[in-house]
Structure formats: structure tokens, C-alpha cells
């Protein structure tokens, strides 16, 4: 099966570049995480630095005022980049004490113990006490495993429990059992973030026609692009609400289309659907399922479904469980990101949500319903197996 050439809208390009320029992440790492070429991302970065608000919107001659605006924007971008580089260059010292003690022991011939203790923020008496009482082999092994658990746990953004962490550790070459991992997590207070109660967000009070519930809670699909699910959620910032429209592929639970904005409009859901269409292969009779909200029943949205030969299915009135996988994604997003943040601006929220979706959720986060693989890895695995 030929793979459709990927297309990226302006929102995707801008947020991808901001991961490099504002979050301070290496360009190569961002390109790898987003599954795009380094040269492509570098070109986007140069365009955005050069054109700012005028980037990715077309071509044409600039007025002197626009040219000056570009120059000032380029200077601001350089200053922001320098600031972020300095912030990232300051490495933290908040590591387990046993790691710092071991470092001091291994470098006693090169540096003064007193100075290393001062720099690493440990006491000399604590170091010498540790040095006189070597740990047992089992204790050392547990400490080593605990370090790996903390690394993997933080890599999962503190979202994995013992089951997912055990899979992650074993696949990275660290041999361990789930019971041992669970015990060390419990003893050291390592807990994955918990979920909050679901809140209804659908407004079905409109005059548009609605479709039957053709999906009927059959939440399984043998292949990609058989069933797409759509929904909307909202995120609070100090500037007000930010709305997120999303589209997932039921087969792999991959978020294939998204759009964010300050108002809940039909244009928001249309943009998310268009992004999904541009990124995927739309087969005739592909089922599109959503709730009965006015944004999905709107004329323009239904026209696009008809134009692409999709079958429209809608949940029963007031029943969020008819779209459970989509609700599950939003609950996961809220649990693992939104509820742990206090967003000052909508742009800050957009940047964090983009990075969560495109870097972590789609490409890294393990799903228990996907053989403990990420959505991207699951689709690749299915392709190789077929």
C-alpha cells in the first residue's frame, strides 16, 4: 500500500519550529520526534525567523515597513534563542545522593573532596559515612534499578505505572520484573498522575440534521483509515479558554488531525478534519464518528464529509460513552499534561499541547490496547506483519 505524501499546515510548522526556538530542544531531536527531515525543519525555522507572522502564508514583495518589521522580529528571535540556550546549559544537580557520592569517590584523585561536596550539595560527613558502609550487592542492584526507573518514569512524563515502566525498561535492556518495579516505586513514592472526573462539553441544541449511531460502540478497526473519531475539549489559560478539536484513527488511536483556537466554532473542527485528510489516505466509506454538537452537524462540515465519501455516524444524545476512545484521549491529555500546568497564555498552552501530541502521545507513549506500543510504532508493526 503506497503511503500518502505528508502535508503540513501553517500551525504545524510554527509549533514545530517553536519546539526548537522557544523550548530549546535540539533541531535533530525535534525532527526525529516529528518524523520529518532535518533540512525541512531547518528551512521552516529559517523562514519563521525571517518572516515571523508573514511566514508560510504566500509570497510577494514587502513594503519598507514590513521589511523593518521582519528585521526587528529576526533580532527578537535571536535574543530569545540566546536566552533559551543559556537556560538549557545550566544543568541541575537534583540527582540521588548515592550518585553524587559515587562521583566524588571516583574523582577524589582529580578534585578536592570538600569542593566536590560543596558543588554537588552534599556534606563531607555524609560522604565519608557512605564510604565506610558499602551497600550489599542486592542493595546496589536496587539502587541501580531505581535510577533506571526514575529515568524511564521522567521520560514518560511521570505518566507510566509499573506495568508500562517494566516494558519500557526491558526493551531498553534493563532486565526486571513488574513486581520488583512496583515495590521500588511504592517504597520511593513514585506514582503516576491520576485522572479526574469527566465533564460533558457537547451542545446538541441546534437545528442541523443529525446522523444515526452507526458505530454503535464497536471500538475496533482492523486497518488504518476505517474509522475516524472526532471531538472537542477545552483548556483554561490566564487569557481565557483555548479550544482543541481532534481527530483520531480508531485502529491505532493516533491523533491524525487537530486544531486549536480561542473560540468554539465550526471552522475549528473543519481545520482539524482537513489536517487529517491531508495527512492520511481517505478511503471511500470511511466512517467518521462524532457527537451531535453543532460544529459537526454544521453544513460546511457535512459537505466535506460528503465530498470525501465518508460515512457520518453520531453518538446518541448526551451519551459520551458512544465516543469513548476519543473521550479517553482527552482524559489522558488532561491527566498527563493540562492538569499539571498553569498556562499563562493560550500560546503557551498550544505549544505544550502540540509537543505532547506530536512528540509524546503519537510517537512515544505506550498504549495497553496496542501491544504496549505507541500509535506510530503500532502502525509500522502492523504494516510489517501484513
Detailed description of the structure:
This protein is α/β, with parallel strands linked by helices. It folds into 3 domains: 10-89, no CATH class; 97-187, no CATH class; 227-385, Ribonuclease H-like superfamily/Ribonuclease H (Nucleotidyltransferase, domain 5). The protein is 50% helix and 10% strand. The protein has helices at 10-21, 27-34, 38-51, 64-89, 97-106, 113-119, 124-132, 137-155, 162-171, 178-187, 266-279, 294-297, 299-307, 324-336, 346-361, 375-385, and strands at 227-237, 240-249, 254-261, 287-290, 311-314. A 5-stranded mixed beta sheet has the order 3-2-1-4-5, sandwiched between helices. It is globular.
Question: What is the percent of helical residues?
Answer: 40-55%
CATH superfamily of the largest domain: Ribonuclease H-like superfamily/Ribonuclease H
CATH architecture of the largest domain: 2-Layer Sandwich
Classified by CATH, the class of the largest domain is: Alpha Beta
Order of helices and strands: HHHHHHHHHHEEEHEHHEHHH
The overall number of domains is 3
Oligomer: single chain
List segments where confidence is low: pLDDT < 50 over at least 5 consecutive residues.
85-94
- Overall geometry comes to globular
**Number of distinct beta strands:** 5
- Terminal Cα separation, in Å? 11 Å
Number of helices: 16
Amino acid at each position: 500500500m503506497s503511503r500518502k505524501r505528508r502535508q503540513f499546515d501553517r500551525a504545524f510548522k510554527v509549533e514545530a519550529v517553536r519546539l526548537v526556538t522557544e523550548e530549546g530542544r535540539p533541531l535533530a531531536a525535534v525532527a526525529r520526534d516529528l518524523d520529518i527531515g532535518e533540512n525541512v525543519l531547518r528551512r521552516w525555522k529559517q523562514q519563521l525567523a525571517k518572516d515571523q507572522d508573514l511566514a508560510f502564508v504566500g509570497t510577494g514583495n514587502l513594503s519598507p515597513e514590513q521589511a523593518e518589521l521582519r528585521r526587528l522580529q529576526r533580532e527578537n528571535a535571536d535574543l530569545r534563542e540566546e536566552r533559551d540556550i543559556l537556560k538549557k546549559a545550566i544543568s541541575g544537580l537534583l540527582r540521588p545522593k548515592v550518585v553524587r557520592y559515587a562521583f566524588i569517590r571516583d574523582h577524589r584523585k582529580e578534585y578536592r573532596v570538600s569542593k566536590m561536596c560543596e558543588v554537588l550539595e552534599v556534606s563531607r560527613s555524609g560522604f565519608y559515612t557512605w564510604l565506610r558502609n558499602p551497600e550489599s550487592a542486592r542493595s546496589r542492584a536496587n539502587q541501580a534499578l531505581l535510577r533506571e526507573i526514575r529515568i524511564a518514569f521522567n521520560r514518560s512524563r511521570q505518566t507510566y505505572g509499573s506495568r508500562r515502566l517494566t516494558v519500557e525498561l526491558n526493551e531498553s535492556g534493563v532486565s526486571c520484573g513488574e513486581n520488583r518495579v512496583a515495590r521500588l516505586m511504592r517504597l520511593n513514592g513514585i506514582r503516576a498522575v491520576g485522572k479526574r472526573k469527566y465533564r460533558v462539553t457537547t451542545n446538541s441544541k441546534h437545528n442541523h440534521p443529525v446522523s444515526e449511531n452507526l458505530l454503535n460502540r464497536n471500538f475496533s478497526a482492523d486497518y488504518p483509515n476505517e474509522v475516524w473519531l472526532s471531538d472537542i475539549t477545552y483548556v483554561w489559560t490566564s487569557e481565557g479558554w483555548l479550544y482543541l478539536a481532534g481527530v483520531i484513527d480508531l485502529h491505532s488511536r493516533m491523533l491524525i488531525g487537530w486544531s486549536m483556537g480561542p473560540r468554539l466554532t465550526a471552522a475549528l473542527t473543519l481545520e482539524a478534519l482537513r489536517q487529517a485528510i491531508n495527512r492520511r489516505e481517505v478511503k471511500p466509506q470511511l466512517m467518521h464518528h462524532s457527537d451531535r454538537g453543532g460544529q459537526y452537524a454544521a453544513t460546511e462540515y457535512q459537505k466535506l464529509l460528503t465530498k470525501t465519501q465518508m460515512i457520518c455516524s453520531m453518538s446518541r444524545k448526551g451519551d459520551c460513552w458512544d465516543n469513548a476512545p476519543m473521550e479517553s484521549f482527552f482524559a489522558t491529555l488532561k491527566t498527563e499534561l493540562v492538569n499539571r500546568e498553569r498556562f499563562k497564555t493560550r500560546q503557551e498552552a498550544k505549544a505544550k499541547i502540540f509537543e505532547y501530541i506530536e512528540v509524546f502521545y503519537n510517537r512515544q507513549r505506550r498504549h495497553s490496547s496496542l501491544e504496549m506500543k505507541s500509535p506510530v510504532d503500532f502502525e509500522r508493526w502492523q504494516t510489517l506483519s501484513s
